[in-house]
Amino acid sequence: MGQLEAQTSSQAVNRPGRPAVFLDRDGTINEQMGYINHITRFQLLPGVGQAIRALNERGLPVVVVTNQSGLARGYFPESLLDTVHREMHRLLALEGAHIDGLYVCPHHPEAKEERFRVTCNCRKPKTGLLEQAATELHLDLKRSFVVGDRWSDLRCGAAVGATTILVLTGYGRGDACYIGPGQPVQPDYVAEDLGAAARWILTRKLESAHR
Question: Is 149 a catalytic site residue?
Answer without folding.
Answer: no
